[in-house]
Amino acid sequence: MDVLTLSRIQFAVATMFHFLFVPLTIGLALIVAIMETYWVRTGNEIYKKMAKFWGKLFLINFAIGIVTGLTLEFQFGTNWSRYSTYVGDIFGSLLAIEATVAFFLESTFIAVWFFGWNKISKKLHCVSIWIVALASIMSAYWIIAANAWMQHPVGYELRNGRAELVDFLAVVTQRFAVYEFVHVLGGCFMVGGFFVMGISAWHLLKEQNTDFFGRSFKIASIFSTVAAFLVIGLGHMNASILYDTQPAKLAAMEAHWETGKSVPMYLLTWPDEKNSTNYFQTLKVPGMLSLLATNNITAELKGLKEWAPEDRPPVLVSFLTFRLMVGLGMVMMGISLFAVVMRERIREFPWFLKICVYAIPLPYLANELGWVLAEMGRQPWIVYGLMKTRDAVSIIPSSYVLVTLIGFIFVYGLLGAVDFYLLFKIARRGPDFTGGLKLEKKTNTATGGSHA
Amino acid sequence: MLETTWFILWGLLWAIYLASDGFDFGLGTLLPFLGRSEGDRKLIVNSMGPFWDGNEVWLVTAGGVTFAAFPRTYATMFSAMYIPLMLLLFALIFRGVAFEFRAKVDSARWRRIWDGCLFVGSAAPAVLLGVFFANLFAGIPIDAQGVLQGGLIDFLHPYALLGGVLFLTLFIVHGALWLAIMVEGDLLERALHVARTFWPASIITVVLFLLTSTYRTDLFTNYLNHPWLFLILVFAVAAFIMTRVFLARRSLWPAFTASALAIGSTALFGVVGMFPNTLISSINPMYNVTAFNSASSALTLKIMLGIALAVLPVVIGYQGWVYYRFGRKLKLEELEDGHSY
Fold first, then answer.
1. With an 8 Å Cβ cutoff, are A436 and B104 in contact?
2. Do A167 and A154 meet the contact criterion of CB atoms below 8 Å apart?
3. Which of A7, A74, A127, A391 to mutate to test the interface with B (most CBs of B within 10 A)?
4. DSSP codes of every residue in B217-266
5. Going from the N-terminus, what domains does chain B have, and what CATH number goes with each?
């Protein structure tokens, strides 16, 4: 394989793996901060216990998020050096600002929080988790602004063979960035909320620590519901913004080939990329696509045939990731709403608690699908309309990339396995368990978390 | 002028990074040697606990600033030094998770695995960063497009390896001094012994490195043209000597501070010697990447300068507070509360 293909695979591996950890960091930090605030304000020790238990899971996840994030910063230079030269003026600045204003805070104060339990005052301790939570959100903003600029470049001029900044405010406040940010943030909160709901549900089903997990569930259910509204609301706005910014992606998401007015939506479709058509399309909702994209049922939408085949994004991938993501979003909205409405008597619905346990992976999946859609749907461009992905890759031997790609798959596989093992074990043990897990096969039942 | 300012800031960021993360690289390297018992190892790891992550962000910032202020430098540096930087990255990955994972399972074997990662993940970056900077000083075989014309072996000349040894010895002294601040009793004495033993080694390596630099690099040209710049070197030498003086008096914080200043000013000495080059081509000086031919637009440089000058002092402020608040003697009993590595 060539450097381009290998680098794209490597970037996909590194980014998608990184984004298994980022959303939980962002979502759970805020939940832990809320729990600790309850403790500081009410003095009720159970909230302290909650902050500690969920905080422990948070930290394991956080560590991998940090180290895999390092990879991304390296990769723009190592594998995408021509891209870096071309956009450093804008994209590089946003990354540098992220490190300076957000990442420092996050990394410094998470240590204050972890090591500070018995060393600093209650209030200061609580402030430090809030700093972590808010810094992680700020951090997301700068990164999303950088990504949004790749999706829809603004505030630049082409000079000296590169994109140079002319309007900083335009770059950091553009609509694309704001919508994308809130949508992604909602997705992150969803991961945090479903994580806490799912683990709490598991313990509630086992009837252990019911007070502890009942309260955790309640907080998480409210959190998830707010997140669901953010995600879906902004998701719709994100899609409609594509009408102005990335019509090819919009067309690919819907497998819409022929330009026309009052474009209908077909509930059942399967795209046929080779022949620039759909194998079948049925269950027509007249004018729906035009309505969704523009709020105008008669609006004209460009079809994929407007672009030469090599300038179209991969249609099947865009189409499938979009539908799956939206479908998952609806399912999660339903789960959140049921959870929040029934939160006071959730233990009367064991079938629902079971669903919550199995729903933990859903927001993760939806997040990944969303990113695949965002990034694949932008192809063949790395910076939409400005630079093609194939022109962005470094001039390096493909053997280098192959070796590091194998290295990443191996190392990340290992880290993922350890992470899953630790989270799984610690989550099962529950809040009364402190110290390190025992490796022995037969675990001591006294530490097994069965003393509710 | 903007480019020059950014070049100096760039050098300062590297200096701060090496002076801060340097001690935890050194301490990680010392872990298997000073950590004779489980308890010792726990103390050693936790003596870096609240600091290492914040220190590492200086690397992210130095990298990010290279990207923002000198995009072509960033692009050329990272693609031309693909394999060395990827090795550094993998080492940092293992090291980062090793801290977090080591105490999560109560098993000697589990801890041994992650302590092993911590050792490799600390010693390897120390050497790799030394090799990296020596290559920056000596130049690497890049062509007019910034593409590497050569192989891995071109990075591993004796001068580069000397750079690796230099960083390793400097960091070992630095790490031992930090450990001395954080522990008591026997471990403290052994830490001081390491610092005393490695201090002469680091001095000899520094001198050797400087001497080799005179014919292997053009670092001294800027200094000969502007002799007042030699003050940086004088400052570095003074800091090295003061490290030993304070060490003899068992003034630990001053000794550690002096060591940090020695490392920082040594790095700065090298970077200033490179000016205006940010990457030197060993094929043809025409191909050098410089602060001027790789800089971002004036607007970006101005905005970034404003942000850096406004925010970095605050960062130094709160990180300083963390050092002040958490840089106190550890007791093993207190580490058993579950809030430690």
1. yes
2. yes
3. A74
4. --HHHHHHHSGGGHHHHHHHHHHHHHHHHHHHTT-HHHHHHHHHHHHHHH
5. 2-337 (1.20.1630.10)
Angle, CA of A144, A145 and A149, to the nearest 5°: 110
Burial class from Cβ neighbours inside 10 Å (0-12, 13-18, 19+) for residue A250 reads buried
Instruction: Give CA–CA dist A323/A310, Å, rounded.
Output: 23
Q: How far is B203 from chain A (nearest CA, A)?
A: 32
Residues 6+ apart with CB under 8 A from A7: A79, A80, A393, A394, A401
Q: Which of B10, B57, B122, B307 to mutate to test the interface with A (most CBs of A within 10 A)?
A: B57
Q: Per residue in A361-383, is it b (16+ CB within 10 Å) or e — as a string?
A: ebbbebbbbbbbbbbbbbbebbb
B91: left (phi over 0), alpha (psi -120 to 50) or beta: alpha
CA dihedral B215, B217, B221, B223 (to 10 degrees): -100
- Distance (Å, rounded) from C-alpha B11 to C-alpha B137? 13
Residue A75 has pLDDT above 80, yes or no: yes
Instruction: Provide the number of CB pairs (under 8 Å) joining chain A to chain B.
Output: 237
Q: Which residues contact B156 (CB under 8 A, 6 or more apart)?
A: B131
Window from A126-140, A270-284, B262-276, B301-315 with minimum mean pLDDT: A270-284
pLDDT digits (tens, 9 = 90+) for A197-230: 999 999 999 999 999 999 999 999 999 999 999 9
**CB < 8 Å to B86, chain A:** 74, 78, 400, 404, 407
C-alpha dihedral (A226, A231, A232, A238), degrees to nearest 10? 150
The pLDDT value recorded for residue A439 is 58
Using a CB-CB cut-off of 8 Å, the residues of chain B touching A111 are 49-51, 53-54, 322, 326
Nearest-by-Cβ selection for A66 from B96, B146, B325? B96
pLDDT digits (tens, 9 = 90+) for A229-263: 999 988 888 888 898 899 999 999 988 998 988 88
| Residue B148 phi, psi dihedral angles, 5° rounding | -70, 125
Cis peptide preceding A380, ω within 30 of 0: yes
The CA distance from B163 to A352, in Å, is 62
Please give the full DSSP string across A34-88, using - where no structure is assigned: HHHHHHHHH--HHHHHHHHHHHHHHHHHHHHHHHHHHHHHHHHHHT-HHHHHHHI
Taking Cα atoms as reference points, which of B226, B238, B301, B303 lies closest to residue B266?
Answer: B238
Do residues B187 and B34 lie in contact, with contact meaning Cβ atoms separated by under 8 Å?
A: yes
Sort out which chain B residues have CB atoms less than 8 A from A109's CB and list them. Answer: 318
Q: Residues in chain A, how many? A: 452
Q: Which of B300, B309, B312 to mutate to test the interface with A (most CBs of A within 10 A)?
A: B300
Chain B residue numbers with beta carbons less than 8 Å from the beta carbon of A415 are 93, 97
